[in-house]
Design a protein that fits this description.
Layout: E1 5-11, E2 14-19, H1 30-45, E3 51-55, E4 60-62, H2 67-70, H3 75-81, H4 83-91, E5 97-101, E6 104-106, H5 108-115, E7 118-122, E8 126-128, H6 142-150, H7 152-161, E9 164-166, H8 167-172, E10 178-180, H9 185-197, H10 201-215, H11 219-233, H12 237-247
Parallel strand pairs: 2-3, 3-5, 4-6, 5-7, 6-8, 7-10
Antiparallel strand pairs: 1-2, 8-9
Helix pairs in contact: 1-4, 6-7, 10-11
The chain binds acetoacetyl-coenzyme A.
Length: about 260
Amino acid sequence: MSDVVLLERPAEGVGLIRINRPEARNALNLEVRRLLARHLTEMGEDAATRAIVLTGNDKSFAAGADIKEMADAGTVEMLARGVHRLWRTIGACPKPVIAAVNGYALGGGCELAMTCDIIIAGESAQFGQPEVRIGIIPGGGGTQRLTRAAGKYRAMKYVLTGELFGARAALEMGLASEVVPDAEVEKRAVELAARIAELPPLAVQLAKEAVLAGMEAPLSSALALEAKSVQILFSSQDQKEGMRAFIEKRKPKFSGR
Ligand code: CAA
């Protein structure tokens, strides 16, 4: 059994996926990418998993694509590897995914964090899209997601120079959701995931969907999608339970239906 990706259950309803290639600063080789895609798909389908934490180790979340694995590849080989399809699968998880980032989140590692829904960064985390320095450009969404998060002029600076930036800069430019002391990154991510795991899963799923689909749509369409999503939730048992519990001043019991 491969141990380059480890699975844990740190709290009720929370699945934790840990990239485990410390000798390569958690570089994303094909095996890691395939396992990430598989585990996120399986957890997405598992009713007992309501929120997911994706993390690495204290030195590195992920230092990008595995440069040694791709240095000699040609175009046809890169096409055949289908990494773009794995990225799509990773981004298609219907449940909230929280990136717990310590150390380096570079290249594909920064892109992996940006594919998640919430980013908790340790104070000494280092982000960046350094691909231009090795003769390529970001290929897992970096040119697009960094631009959407930080705006054209900041994204251009980092994509064109390959310069790294710290956790505080990431927070200030809207890339990180929170910065916490390094030792508390995983604990904080699990705490947030556990809080989400207690909430009605259909509402959580539609909230994620509305935010993501809305980012790609004109405002009027995005607002229409949001309105429809709220209306749909009125046929869920959890909406009835949530509102009744509020009125009856008791804790709700959500069934996921
Ligand atoms: N791929 C393969 N191996 C990597 C790696 C990577 N992305 N990053 C680190 N490693 C390996 C190193 O080769 C080294 O292996 P050896 O011990 O066998 O020499 C080991 O991990 C430790 O690395 P360092 O000695 O360099 O550790 P450090 O702490 O001094 O530096 C680092 C850490 C700043 C992350 C540095 O390793 C680094 O710059 N890594 C490359 C970062 C990068 O360029 N990422 C972008 C990759 S391209 C990409 O992601 C493409 C895409 O989206 C399409």
